[in-house]
Design goal:
Elements lengths: L9 H6 L5 E3 L8 H9 L4 E6 L10 H10 L5 E6 H4 L4 H8 L4 E5 L4 H9 L3 E6 L2 H9 L4 E5 L5 E3 L4 H12 L4 E4 L5 H9 L4 E4 L1 H4 L8 H9 L5 E4 L1 H6 L8 E5 L2 H6 L3 H6 L2 H13 L22 H18 L5
């Protein structure tokens, strides 16, 4: 059997990986098994520690250690929500004990952590949503900048991927950029490379894999939903008792709970702990009419549930074909 083709870029050379595909560190979804599988396929898997808050069922010290073990012998990294890490900085120390290949910080000031991460030998990845934040991240030591468009699942802001990526690539050069937001197949990866990115960070597409954490009902919901079924909202954070700083909101699949409460955050907050407990029960039991399923606009391109390692190779093969067969002038 012949070796699969590769797409070498500045990101693959920096990280020492075969393919410019990075797993988005989705909290409660990207555990060690998924991260390890993505790395086994030649990309870079990132464990999603999220808020590093044990109350949410993931992100505790023990959970972080266990997920690195579950990744096996594959080189993986880890991602944190930066403003939450400010409240529990010990979580980074715990992660660094496992010698991550990379650490990704999103949504906050990386300055307090940049030197520690780089001194530990990990590559520092920083996700941004604006041109100003991209320049600031590069100035503060980010070695890879992820330009995240509003099409992404989970938390983000307002800029669209298509115009944001080339602007960030120009602004932070020679720091390499990965594109994120709405990318779910090889055509998206090819587009990112043409826009000046050196790779793509992909989340929702990898949720629909056997290795991903999360309830099977939510994986099935992802497969049968489309981008038109998503919305940006703060209602699911309010339901969980989480207060996100502006301007970030979450993109998720619209459901009955969102239809009832979107835009009524103050009223929802007044429902108190009883509502919060009901919400967490729904999350654990996969009651998709109430539970949050964060997902991006690339949902239309998801129709199966392959293994994550094979999915990396498929995305890269599709990208190579897309780049080779793109229309050319003349």
């Amino acid at each position: 059997m012949s070796e699969p083709e590769r797409l070498p870029t500045a990101i693959t050379r920096l990280l020492g990986i075969d393919h410019p595909v990075l797993l988005a560190p989705m909290g409660g979804v990207a555990g060690g098994a998924l991260a390890g599988a993505v790395s086994s396929g030649g990309g870079l898997g990132l464990i999603g520690a999220g808020y590093a808050d044990p109350a949410l069922g993931f992100g505790s010290d023990g959970w972080i250690r266990d997920e690195f073990v579950k990744a096996g012998n594959h080189a993986v990294g880890i991602g944190f929500i930066t403003w939450a890490l400010d409240r529990r900085p010990r979580a980074l120390d715990v992660a660094l004990e496992s010698e991550p290949h990379a650490v990704m910080l999103s949504f906050g000031d990386i300055a307090p952590y940049a030197a520690k991460i780089r001194d530990a030998g990990a590559t520092l990845i920083c996700q941004v949503q604006t041109l100003r934040d991209a320049r600031e991240a590069a100035d503060k030591g980010a070695q890879i900048v992820v330009a995240q468009g509003t099409e992404a699942g989970g938390h983000g802001a307002d800029r669209a991927t298509l115009p944001l990526v080339p602007a960030v690539a120009d602004a932070v050069a020679p720091v390499p950029v990965a594109a994120a937001g709405g990318i779910a197949d090889g055509r998206g990866l090819a587009a990112a490379l043409i826009l000046g990115a050196e790779g793509a960070m992909i989340g929702t597409r990898f949720w629909a894999t056997p290795e991903a954490l999360g309830h099977a009902n939510q994986k099935a919901l992802i497969e049968r939903s489309g981008g038109d079924d998503t919305l940006r909202t703060s209602v699911f954070d309010t339901a969980r008792g989480i207060v996100w700083p502006e301007p970030w909101t979450g993109r998720a699949i619209r459901n009955a709970f969102a239809d009832a409460w979107d835009g009524r955050d103050d009223e929802l907050r007044a429902e108190g702990p009883a509502m919060r407990e009901r919400f967490f029960v729904a999350q654990r039991e996969g009651v998709t009419d109430m539970a949050v399923t964060f997902a991006g606009e690339g949902l239309d391109l998801i129709a199966d549930r392959p293994g994550a390692g094979a999915l990396v190779e498929r995305i890269v093969a599709e990208a190579i074909v897309a780049l080779a067969t793109a229309p050319r002038p003349g």
